[in-house]
Automatic annotation (TrEMBL):
<protein>
    <submittedName>
        <fullName>WDR27 protein</fullName>
    </submittedName>
</protein>
<dbReference type="Pfam" id="PF00400">
    <property type="entry name" value="WD40"/>
</dbReference>
<dbReference type="InterPro" id="IPR042411">
    <property type="entry name" value="WDR27"/>
</dbReference>
<keyword id="KW-0853">WD repeat</keyword>
<dbReference type="InterPro" id="IPR015943">
    <property type="entry name" value="WD40/YVTN_repeat-like_dom_sf"/>
</dbReference>
<dbReference type="InterPro" id="IPR011047">
    <property type="entry name" value="Quinoprotein_ADH-like_sf"/>
</dbReference>
<feature type="repeat" description="WD">
    <location>
        <begin position="538"/>
        <end position="571"/>
    </location>
</feature>
<dbReference type="InterPro" id="IPR001680">
    <property type="entry name" value="WD40_rpt"/>
</dbReference>
Length: 731
């Protein structure tokens, strides 16, 4: 199969070539082969547009403009025979200038002239049929090929073992001299089927019969090293679980629960199918969204299509994650459930891409018109901004100042990507209506449960207070100068104790004047920001201090320890104002911090985090001087889904926010909305290893001129690296 622009090429009656124009619905039949056509390819240029067909006995190049003219004149079109009796041809590819054709026949690659019958070079070295070959556009005379080399020698044991693990070869050729430049092994037990060269990033992308992708660098200094390995089956499960939890439908007639079932939820008696990579092709992603107000990621990001036997996938080359998935079996109008071959157009026309598939078990070919924009909007309707519905926002919907309201929106839409039909889903809502004749008394909505408001910020401020607070915020906030370089040299170094003692946690106060340190010797030290003097020393914990956090007004400090206790300290007093003992917690207390502008305290205990309301009181009663007068009460416990322990927690205390971010030992990220009192999103397997740090931009929401673009990102750190996330899309 082959596709180019609005043309589709496929064999008819085994040995006859049909070139179908989808714009005019006119077929062009070309005859010249006596045996079954086994490979097809369109040329790289448009004028003239060439197509090459290959069979067991000959390879023919057709000029489609000349062939069309011959048919209109009533003559039989003829092509140029450029090769004969080369064997079973599995793959052919034109050079970038359409002057040569690489023919993969058996274990060899023949370089043929596209103008006459001439063999320019013969490239051998593979031990099994060559399945794909591609020309490198920026390196002259370079050809890259993949094969399914499965033979091995059993004469010596170490040689047999070597071939077992490295029998799938990727070779780099200089076809002008027929010289082998590089040969690399890929650790897999399945043959390589497809190949793509990413010109923008100078990378090779290859896929095997078991749904595995490998990406290699073609940069000269990288020595063809492997950059990434992608398991399509796992990526598909992650994507489907995310869509399934969002409750959205994918495509017309698709059953979301049916599509997004993983192996653990597969119905009894069903058969697990692999995902052989039949095709890898560039995705003309941003051309399809040039009219959209919002795009999905940076314009520098590359995307590519993956054609498998069960559907089409779109992979983001920036984060190697699945962006969209289209399954053949979930469309009632499509009779092909499992594809044997697949072809896609590289360039999108009218925001649509042509896809050509053939059935695995029947003599049947289907031409699909995929609307990429509709597919992405449908499957990402939970995450894309629009002007119809609110989505997750770090900043609370009710601000400290009522005139600074800010909402983010998302699309609600539904389109069929295989036809021109469009359907829209409209959420029916029941407005509040008077229960009696008095207009001030309203019902709860009858069909909708009343919204629970756990807490609300104070928005009833006078104009004088608003202007005074706003001006004070501008004076206190000191932004990092954008024109300055990041600090790379330390200014000062001090020893906090006489003997070596680990420092488990540090945190600056909001104004940057004080620095708190939690030590393994059970103490908390307060330094001046220039580290010239110890401001205070807090002692009383019976274990190492694992977390410290400042209050918004810089008057209080909360500390948690390995002794399963929590203490709140006044900066002006060495004795704790509040102590929560071991009886309150069943495991160690971690990640304690103030929350909602010092209204609450958040802390982690095992696989759950606690929300505590408190009122510190440092006054003493002469008769009951040892009795604690501060009050603390548990509001609610929030367990994290399917994890043994919370490894990191982040929440904003500098302004009103309902959002709490957690990371678990199961490598997942979870977002909680405390105003709704529940979890709102789960990102499974956010990292390869457990996340040990979540960072948010916790600056004041009034320190910039565009608060709507502020505090929308978080950074997670784990053993496998650092990732930047967009909190509007959770990607």
């Amino acid at each position: 199969l082959a596709c180019s622009h609005h043309l589709c090429a496929f064999p008819v009656n085994r040995n006859e070539l049909c070139v179908w124009n989808t714009a005019t619905a006119q077929p062009l039949y070309l005859s010249g082969h006596h045996y079954s056509i086994s490979a097809l390819s369109f040329g790289s240029k448009i004028n003239p547009l060439l197509v090459c067909s290959a069979s067991h006995e000959r390879v023919i190049v057709w000029n489609l403009d000349e062939c069309t003219q011959k048919v209109q004149e009533g003559f039989t079109p003829r092509g140029i025979v450029i090769g004969t009796l080369l064997g079973m041809v599995l793959h052919i590819r034109f050079s970038p200038d359409d002057q040569q054709v690489a023919v993969c026949a058996g274990n060899q690659i023949y370089m043929l002239s596209a103008k006459n019958e001439a063999i320019l070079a013969e490239l051998d070295g593979h031990l099994a049929p060559v399945t794909a070959a591609e020309f490198c556009t920026w390196e002259k005379s370079m050809l890259i090929s993949v094969s399914e080399d499965r033979t091995f020698k059993a004469r010596q044991l170490y040689l047999s073992l070597y071939l077992i693990f490295f029998f799938l070869n990727l070779k780099v050729w200089d076809y002008s001299t027929s010289q082998l430049i590089y040969q690399s092994g890929i650790i897999t037990a399945f043959p390589l089927l497809s190949l793509l060269i990413d010109e923008e990033n100078k990378q090779i992308i290859t896929g095997c019969a078991e749904g595995q992708l490998w990406i290699f660098s073609l940069i000269s200094d990288h020595n063809y090293r492997c950059i990434a390995h992608i398991d399509l089956k796992k990526e598909k499960e992650k994507f489907c679980n995310k869509v399934w939890k969002s409750g959205k439908e994918i495509g017309e007639g698709q059953n979301n629960s049916k599509l997004c079932k993983t192996d653990n939820m597969r119905p009894e008696g069903s058969v697990e199918t692999s995902l052989p990579v039949l095709l890898i092709e560039h995705c003309d992603f941003f051309v399809c969204f040039h009219n959209e107000e919002n795009t999905y990621s940076s314009l520098n990001t590359s995307y590519f299509w993956i054609g498998t036997s069960t559907g089409l996938l779109i992979i983001n080359l920036a984060n190697f994650e699945l962006e969209a998935f289209l399954s053949y079996r979930d469309y009632s109008d499509l009779s092909i459930r499992i594809a044997r071959l697949c072809a896609l157009t590289r360039k999108a026309a009218n925001q649509k891409v042509l896809c050509l598939i053939t059935s695995m078990f029947e003599d049947m070919i289907a031409v699909l018109e995929v609307n990429l924009a509709a597919l992405m909007r449908t499957q990402h309707s939970d995450f894309l901004p629009c002007k119809n519905e609110k989505s997750l926002s770090v900043i609370a919907s009710s601000y400290f100042f009522p005139f600074l309201t800010n909402h983010y929106f998302r699309v609600i839409g539904h389109k069929c990507v295989l036809s021109h039909k469009e359907a829209s889903r409209v959420k029916s809502t029941v407005k509040d209506k008077p229960l009696v004749f008095h207009n001030k008394i309203k019902s709860s909505g009858y069909t909708v449960a009343p919204r629970m408001t756990m807490f609300s910020p104070n928005t009833k401020l006078k104009k004088k207070e608003v202007s005074k607070w706003k001006s004070s915020c501008k004076c206190k906030n000191k932004e990092y100068p954008l024109e300055s370089y990041p600090p790379i040299k330390y200014e000062k170094e001090i020893s906090v104790t006489c003997k070596p003692t680990p420092i488990f946690c540090i945190q600056y106060s909001g104004d940057g004047k004080l620095l708190a340190c939690g030590l393994a010797d059970k103490t908390v030290l307060i330094f001046n920001s220039n580290l010239t003097d110890v401001h205070n020393v807090f002692s009383g914990h019976d274990g190492a201090v694992n977390s410290v956090a400042w209050s918004h007004d810089k008057k209080w400090l909360v500390s948690a320890s390995e002794d399963r206790t929590l203490r709140v300290w006044s900066v002006c007093n060495k004795e704790p104002a509040l102590i929560l003992g071991k009886e309150n917690f069943h495991k160690n207390v971690r990640f304690a911090q103030f929350y909602f502008i010092d209204t609450f305290i958040l802390l982690c205990c095992g696989a759950e985090f606690h929300l505590l309301s408190f009122h510190p009181d440092t006054t003493k009663d002469d008769l009951k001087r040892y009795k604690q007068r501060s009050v603390c009460k548990l509001v609610q416990k929030f367990p994290m889904t399917s994890t043994m322990e919370i490894t990191s927690l982040s929440a904003v205390n500098e302004f009103y926010s309902y959002i709490v971010l957690t990371a678990g030992s199961n490598r997942a990220l979870e977002v909680f909305d405390l105003n709704a009192g529940c979890s709102t999103a789960v990102i499974p397997e956010a990292h390869v290893r457990s996340v040990h740090q979540i960072c948010q931009n916790k600056g004041s929401s009034f320190s910039t001129q565009q608060p709507e673009a502020y505090n929308l990102f978080m950074t997670t750190a784990a053993g496998d690296g650092i990732k930047l996330w967009d909190l509007r899309t959770l990607r």
